[in-house]
């Protein structure tokens, strides 16, 4: 006989657990399929880079991420104008364009203009028809040496701030930071009263 006022055992252990098991046996085949799809796409878009169009450097949104840089949607019209690239031509030579984006700082504008200029200097433009060469197309020598860029190009690198090392002097060692903080806090607290007292003293002197 079960003693004390306990819960009556009522465990359902014989569940049809095999119906709820999720398998992942298609993972290796999916990996192969994705790799073959990437290869197929690279052949289809040849001689364009496999990573897609060139993207601008932008800062992340909100206070938490705004110090980090990442790839944006596309270059603004102002950046394209500064780099001397017409907005209609840009998508045809592998440059992403975002007409909604606005430049709110000179630094980011200059960085992206420089990025566009670097890209333009390295760019090899194939003619649409082999026999009909137009202005802006690359020379036959450049076309012969051109290869398809695999993976990311002009990568976005975050600059690490440099730390300047200084020698610890005796003045630094003698400096009492906590004492200084307390003193400045006191000065701030008594600032108004001292100002009033000085004004009254000046008034008395004039009399």
What would your notes on this structure say?
The protein is mainly alpha-helical and about 210 residues long. The protein has helices spanning about 25-45, 60-65, 75-85, 105-120, 140-145, 170-175, 175-190, 190-205; strands spanning about 55-60, 70. It has a two-stranded antiparallel sheet with strand order 1-2. The mean pLDDT is about 90.
Produce a short descriptive summary.
This protein has 207 residues and is mainly α. It has 8 helices and 2 strands. It has a two-stranded antiparallel ribbon.
Shape: flat
Q: Give a quick account of the main beta sheet: strands, pairing sense, barrel closure.
A: 2 strands, antiparallel
- Beta content: under 5%
Q: Separation of termini?
A: 106 Å
SSE string, helix = H, strand = E?
A: HEHEHHHHHH
Q: Look at the helices and sheets and give the structural class.
A: mainly alpha
Helix fraction by DSSP (H/I, runs of at least 4): 40-55%
Strand order within the widest beta sheet: 1-2
Number of distinct beta strands:
2
Rg calc: 34 Å
Q: Provide mean pLDDT, rounded.
A: 90
pLDDT < 50 stretches: none
Spell out the key features of this protein.
mainly alpha; two-stranded antiparallel sheet; 8 helices; 207 residues
List the helices and strands and how they pair.
Blueprint: H1 27-44, E1 57-59, H2 62-65, E2 69-71, H3 77-83, H4 106-122, H5 140-145, H6 170-174, H7 177-189, H8 191-206
Antiparallel strand pairs: 1-2
